[in-house]
Amino acid sequence: MRVRRVDRKTTAFIAEVFKKLDYKTLGDIYCYEGGKEFWRAKRKPCQRLGMKVAKALADRLPPGGRSLYIGAGVAELPPLLVEALACQRQVEPYNLRQSEVTALNRACGSLPVRYCGRDARMAKGTFDHVWMVSVLNDPERFSHLAPLSYGRADPVTFDPAKFQRERRVVQSIVDRCLPMLRLPGLVTTTTEEVIWIADWCHRSNIPYRVERKHYPTALVGDPICFIRVGAKRKKRSTRLSGSQS
To answer: Where are the domains of the chain?
Structure first.
């Protein structure tokens, strides 16, 4: 694994984008109430922890590639900008919330990162990196699937039929997006979403390896990890729903 330093100019650009963000608008998007206080508490951690993931990605991704970001928001700004500026990569972030897309693109200005207000399943071409963080277990979108994923489903009120419908949507996202991953490739996801990536790999008969190192996040509780998809298994790796290293 190569070690690539993120230059000060890129770090300064990221800090400037965070300063330009419209936190009032973002507060209304991310919170039903208390949005101002939310971003006052989360802004710095979001930037700091995002930079740690961004630097880890810079060490793993080759220059000149393409990355597909599914459900990208504020937290994805550091990795997106590091990829585009420090790694000279093309990035395509997708977000279905139009008001957030507008706020993010306004803050990014002329920088080579433009959020798309469309479904990521409409992306064209192939990518050597897919970012899928807090997409497949979003409690707002998947109100019956998410509690089961986290072991908090209520046996009295749990609705199997609604869960089945939500599971089909999740599998559709995975089945439409992961085939766009050029192999061998890298998937960035949360530890709770690994099972969906692993399921696709098993069904597609594609080897994968889950890296052991995890990275904390500021906006969601689930840590981030990396999955090498299409990578050859190491001889001494531990088999655990796929292999981990």
So the answer is: 8-244
Decide the pairing of beta strands 66-70 and 90-94.
parallel
Pairing verdict, β 224-229 and 181-190: antiparallel
Tokens found for residue 126: 């192939």
For residue 236, give Cα distances in angstroms to 101, 117, 233, 239: 44, 44, 9, 9
Please give the pLDDT value at position 133.
95
Contact (Cβ atoms closer than 8 angstroms) between residue 111 and residue 13: yes
The answer, yes or no, to whether residue 237 has pLDDT greater than 80, is no
Alpha helices, DSSP H only, in the chain? 8-20, 23-30, 35-60, 77-81, 98-108, 145-149, 160-177, 194-204
Q: What digits encode the pLDDT tens for the residues 147-186?
A: 777 777 777 777 889 889 989 999 999 999 999 999 999 9
Considering only CA atoms, which of 172, 170, 92 is closest in space to residue 127? Answer: 92
The tens digit of pLDDT for each residue in 19-49 reads: 999 999 999 999 989 998 999 999 999 999 9
State both tokens at 219: 């906006």
pLDDT above 90 covers a percentage of the chain that reads: 76
Q: Distance between CA atoms of 171 and 176, rounded to whole angstroms? A: 8
Q: Mean pLDDT over residues 116-127, rounded?
A: 96
Taking the domain 8-244, which CATH number applies?
Answer: 3.40.50.150
Measured in degrees and rounded to the nearest 5, phi and psi for residue 148 equal -70, -40
Q: Work out the number of other CB atoms within 10 angstroms of the CB of residue 228.
A: 21
Could you tell me the CA-to-CA distances from 138 to 11, 56, 193, 208 in Å, in that order? 29, 24, 10, 24
Cα distance from N-terminal residue to C-terminal residue, the chain: 13
